[in-house]
Every structure is written in structure tokens, then in C-alpha cells.
Amino acid sequence: MNPMVITAAMVGAETTREQTPYLPISADEIAEDAAKCREAGAAMVHLHVRTPEGKPSQDTELFRAAIRAIRKKCDVLIQVSTGGAVGMNVDERCGALKLTGADRPDMATLSTGTVNFGPDVFWNPRPLIRDIATRIKDLGLKPEIECFDVGMIDEARALEKEGFITLPAHFDFVLGVGGALAATAEGLDFMRSYIPAGSSWTCAAMGRHQLPFVELSAERGGNARVGMEDNIYISKGVLAKGNFELVAEAAKRAKGKGRELATPAQARELLRLT
Predict the structure, then answer these.
(1) Predicted TM-score (pTM) of this structure
(2) What is the number of H-type helices and E-type strands within the chain?
(3) Is residue 1 part of a domain?
(4) In the chain, % of residues over pLDDT 70
(5) Looking at the chain, which terminus has fewer C-beta neighbours within 10 angstroms, N or C?
């Protein structure tokens, strides 16, 4: 099997400091945790940003500050979110896609469908998907296709036919969000069997499913996303003291299944970012 790419989803838009005091918010806090994640085995970080007050933001300058701080600390790949927070318009969501030159990220997410998101709706109508796909393509980035349900894989095929993306691509199966596809082994197996031939995949499972799904993904030749965007506990009732603790546990579980861990350079090749 290929080396396993571990991605640390460090911040997100939903987790709060009231839920965990260990959530990194400032650029320096994010960079320090990112460096520890890299040391623990992560090849990439999935990046959201926050205002100094901790509110979700997609502000270009906040992304710039975080990316610069991370790159001063380590060589981890940086994947930016274009999902932002529920309720943001498309221009807000694409704040990180204004970064060029040395501040340009390595990858960006592209969600390919509207989905119930707990009590809210993560709104991705087809014209908006194509708008974001165009911005990602214009920046010369490869998208990670975020799929909360199976039909979102079919939408990726439609995007390829229309010239917005190229296939094979890298997919992220986001499992266990309330109102979307549940985190089950059966769901994971169907999604990985359904992606276009030659594509790679990562699984991001929510809450208590996060770490067990690292093992399922490792066994199946896939990759894994862990971190406080999706889960704040290292074990039942015990808060992770940083994203690096979740990465370290994921690395331990992956190695226990016989998987080597990808370096950032290897991940760049495996995810076709060159």
C-alpha cells in the first residue's frame, strides 16, 4: 500500500473555546500546533481561520498570517477550506483563494453538494460549486472533493465533463454529520468503490468515530483526517490537549495496521499536487 497521508483539521468553524481550551485560534497558536502535528506524523493541515475573538472567518489576511506562521515552523502541506461557516456567501468562503506567490496554499477543498448539517444547511447549489471550482482552477490548485453523501461523487463526474476539474482526483469522505451519510464501514466501502478509477481518498469521520475510522481507512489503503474541527476527545471524556495528540494517536493506529506515514513530499506526489 502507499504511505498513508494524515491530515490535521485543526480549527474548523464550529468548535469553540468553551468546548475545549486547546483550540488554536491565533496564527502563532495554529503554527505551533501544526509543527507538533507534523512531528507526530501529519503530512498536511486542513485550515480554517478565526478572528481574535474566536469567530469563524475566511478573511484573506488571517489566512495569510496563519500560512506564513506555519511555513516558518515546518514543511507541512496546507489545504485551505472554501466551505467556511454555514451562512457565508461565496466571496467570503473563497478568501484564501486570493493568496498568490509564497502565500499560496497547496490545495483547497471543494464541496460538491448541498447537505443538511445538524440543524443547519450547508448550501452548495450547482452554480456556486462551479464558481468555487473555477477560482481553485484559476489559482492553479488541485481540489480535494469533499463528499458528505454519495451523490456528491456523481457531481464530481459532472464537473469533469464540463471542464471544471480533472479526474482522477482526491476525495474526502466526510462521514457522520447529522443529516448526511452516517459513519459506517458499509458507507465507507461503498464510497471508496464508487469514486473514479485511479482516484485517492481520505476519510474524515465525526466525533467518536474519528479514531476508529483511521484504522478502517488504514486497512483499506486510504488516508485519514483527524483533528479538533471534527472531534475534541482523545478518548471518552478526555480532551485532546492539541491537534497533535489526535495525530499521534492516528499515527499509532495506522502503523498498527502496517501502514507507513507519508511525508509532505510523498503526499504531494500521492495527491497529484506537483
Answers:
(1) 0.97
(2) 9, 14
(3) no
(4) 100
(5) C
